[in-house]
Amino acid sequence: MANLFKRPFKPVAAPGDKLFSILVFGLFIFLFLYLFEPFGMSGLKPRQQFFISLGFGFVTTFVLFIFKYFFEPVITKNRWTLGKNIVWDIFIASSIGVANYFYISLVFHQPFVFKYLLLGIWTTMLVGSIPVTISYTVRFNRIYRDALIEAAISPEKTLWDEEVIISAGNPKNELKLNPGNIVYLCSNDNYVTVVTVKDEVTSRVTIRGTLKSAESELINNKRFLRCHKCYIINLDYVATVRGHNQNMTVSLLNAATEIPVSRSRADLVIKLTKKI
């Protein structure tokens, strides 16, 4: 649980999104108080209910605007975490509670009573917990969705649309290939062998060059992985993963060769092929 609160957290950055969330928050407070008439609001006349509820919504919006636009950008610059953000939101809610107390005291000409100030803070935090919870849920869903989009592997039809040119650093022997047909590449001294499959027929082409150069030519196709100093594999062709970190190999479809996996790449191979 402690690690959860230490996770990096980025508050809403876009000015438009920030303003929208502030206005929605203020509108929620107004509608909640006006429609449900909690905390003695039902004893007021309808006209008073409307304007007092509207005043609470305005106070909430104003305080949020001040904190979110003037203070938050300053304090969230360095190492902002989820735990800090929760504490910050509690502080903002407490400040709204203080502002609401003085607002209602002004409306009804009440003298200052510390007990009622604490009650005002508690009431604000209680009511505010609803939109805050919804806000966190929406925000985490958005973060999760964006992370999936960022990390997602493009569908095969999109990923393999364009041909790639593999020269392994030697323009004299360029190969134009559909990357979806490449099973793996391997190096032997100053030569690179490209193993492909098309219509169930496996082919091997050897060109002069380096595997590092070939790797850079495949960098836009995220399904290729340099699993060993001498091998680049197409993850779509991985059939099985055998062994452990010290002695791991992968077998590929349409290839009789067992591909070794470096110890430093073993965890990544397991992660990327765990659904196989």
Low-confidence stretches: 153-161
Element-by-element helix/strand order: HHHHHHEEEEEHEEEEEH
End-to-end Cα distance, whole Å, is 31 Å
Largest sheet: spatial strand order: 5-4-3-7-6
Q: What is the molecular shape?
A: rod-shaped
Category from helices, strands and their pairing = alpha+beta
The helicity comes to 40-55%
Mean pLDDT, to the nearest integer, reads: 84
The total number of structural domains is 2
- The fraction of residues assigned to DSSP E strands is 15-25%
User: C-alpha Rg, in Å?
Assistant: 30 Å
Say how many strands there are.
10
Largest sheet: 5 strands, antiparallel
Number of helices: 8
The gist of it:
The protein has eight helices and ten strands.
How would you portray this structure in words?
β3 (182-188) and β4 (191-198) form a beta hairpin. This protein has helices spanning 2-5, 15-36, 46-75, 82-108, 114-151, 156-159, 211-217, 263-272; strands at 164-166, 175-177, 182-188, 191-198, 201-208, 224-228, 231-234, 238-242, 248-252, 258-261. It folds into two domains: 2-151, no CATH class; 157-272, Beta Barrel (OB fold (Dihydrolipoamide Acetyltransferase, E2P)), CATH 2.40.50. α2 packs antiparallel against α3. It is built from eight helices and ten strands. By secondary structure, the chain is of the alpha+beta class. The chain is rod-shaped and about 90 Å long. A five-stranded antiparallel β-sheet has the order 5-4-3-7-6. A three-stranded antiparallel β-sheet has the order 8-9-10.
